[in-house]
Amino acid sequence: MTARGAAGRCPPTTWLTPLLLLVCPLVRGSITEEASEHCSHMIGNGHLQFLQQLIDSQMETSCQIAFEFVDQEQLKDPVCYLTKAFFLMQDIMEDTMRFKDNTPNAYFIVKLQELTLRLKSCFTKDYEEQGKACVRTFYETPLQLLEKIKNVFNETKTLLKKDWNIFSKNCNDSFAKCSIQGHERQKERHSDPQLPRFTFHLLVPSIILVLLAVGGLLFYRRRWRSHREPQTVDSPMERPEGSPLTQDEDRQVELPV
Predict the structure, then answer these.
(1) 207: helix, coil or strand?
(2) Which of 49, 94, 50 has the alpha carbon at shortest distance from 68?
């Protein structure tokens, strides 16, 4: 009995392992579904209203600020553009978009910073190595900067609703192309053989024109001075009365015939 009973009993592992194989996919599926819901609905209309209120409260000014942002001319892919912009926004909100403490605008910025921290889980790739790829310095007004930030949040929300996993795309190739383009442009600026020739052909005519203008000015000034100087030689018609020559002529006229 004992042996038969022992032989008839199944060890715990023989039935526990198939059960785990059935349970794990269910748990994984529930986590994935939860993550999809989490990313798809993370950016709410309230966050976009925060940004709109920040925009509406800005003073219209022509003063510009410098900030680093994605160069959309280099990075055409919309998913990679938003991925790059998302990581840059964190630095902008922390270092550039500063408001007085205990004000509504400062409260809005804190809420947006909290949102970006939660959104990190939806951007599964790490692009620390290409930190400066596809990035350039912009000089724009605070209003224009806020418009850029709002557009990024709005477009990110739209894409996440269509596909919660869209930002798992690998953008290394797109960023690498930006790096290559940047190196080529920098190389052209420093090693372009046409640039010195162009400068020479432009500089020589300019110098000639300046010299001609200065020479003409000096010539005109010299002639103007010569016309202003008084004549030093007296003509015979300007001799004064009572001169010896005039007296002799008068005497000759008075002699009797």
Answers:
(1) helix
(2) 94
Residue appearing with tokens 């022992």: 6
Instruction: Please provide the average confidence, as pLDDT, over all residues in the chain.
Output: 75
**pLDDT above 50: residue 4:** no
Burial (CB count within 10 angstroms: exposed 0-12, middle 13-18, buried 19+), residue 97: buried
Sign of the alpha-carbon torsion through 145, 147, 148, 152: positive
Q: Please name the residue that has the structure tokens 């797109």.
A: 174
Confidence of residue 103 (pLDDT cuts 50, 70, 90): very high
Residues 6+ apart with CB under 8 A from 104: 53, 57
Q: Are 78 and 104 in contact (CB under 8 A)?
A: no
The 10s digit of each residue's pLDDT in 15-40 is 333 433 444 444 444 444 444 558 98
Q: How far apart are CA 5 and CA 207, in angstroms?
A: 112
Q: Which helix (H) or strand (E) holds 135?
A: strand 135-140
* Contact partners, residue 86, CB within 8 Å, separation at least 6: 116, 119, 123, 152, 156
Closest CA to 142 of 256, 42, 57: 57
- Residue type (1 letter), 241: E
- Please state, as a whole number, how many other Cβ atoms lie within 10 Å of the Cβ of residue 47: 19
Q: SS3 sequence, 62-103? A: CCCEEEEEECCCCCCCHHHHHHHHHHHHHHHHHHCCCCCCCC
> In terms of pLDDT, which residue wins out, 129 or 126?
126
Higher-confidence position of 141 and 200: 141
Residues 229 and 222: their CA atoms lie apart, in Å, by: 11
